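Practice problem 4.
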């Protein structure tokens, strides 16, 4: 048994136990192995010569542009996009808030602190004028972001349904004249 363990360079572990340094080195090699096994063949060739998981990770972050400088630029671009978003004329609340939340989630992914209150303010300020009545009654209250979105969607649905019911009546009135 001793010969087998010596042949696999494991005897020192059996004989003297695992040192903290050796244990960390083993964890590092396992992490490096996992990184190497998780990437495509073309990426593997770029990290194959890495001698530590940290070195492989640094190669991957540079490869995919996730350096601190680039993250700051991405956050800035997303923040500008967020500030400039406005609901378009034929857009529904559901579509607009979905687009807005995609940008918000990207901002959060890249480390921006964006509160629900800020998102609510953005929604209230960027809706079409037909929402002015509902917005003035909602904003300033203690509603959650989810409540605001669902309230707007319900109001829009009710308004659209009312307009559909009234449309045939308006059409008939015009014909009679």
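Answer key:
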């Amino acid at each position: 048994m001793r010969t087998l363990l010596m042949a696999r360079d494991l005897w020192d572990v059996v004989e003297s136990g695992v040192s903290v340094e050796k244990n960390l080195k083993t964890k590092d090699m396992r992490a490096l192995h996992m990184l190497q096994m998780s990437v495509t063949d073309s990426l593997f060739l770029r990290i194959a010569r890495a001698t530590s998981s940290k070195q492989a990770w640094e190669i991957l972050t540079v490869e995919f542009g996730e350096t601190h400088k680039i993250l700051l630029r991405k956050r800035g671009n997303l923040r500008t996009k967020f500030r400039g978003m406005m609901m378009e004329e034929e857009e529904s609340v559901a579509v607009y808030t979905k687009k807005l939340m995609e940008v918000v989630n990207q901002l959060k992914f890249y480390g921006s602190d964006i509160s629900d209150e800020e998102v609510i303010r953005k929604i209230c300020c960027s809706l079409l004028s037909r929402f002015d009545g509902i917005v003035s009654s909602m904003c300033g209250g203690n509603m959650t972001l989810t409540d605001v979105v669902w309230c707007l969607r319900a109001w829009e649905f009710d308004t659209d349904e009312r307009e559909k019911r009234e449309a045939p009546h308006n059409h008939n009135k015009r014909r009679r004249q």
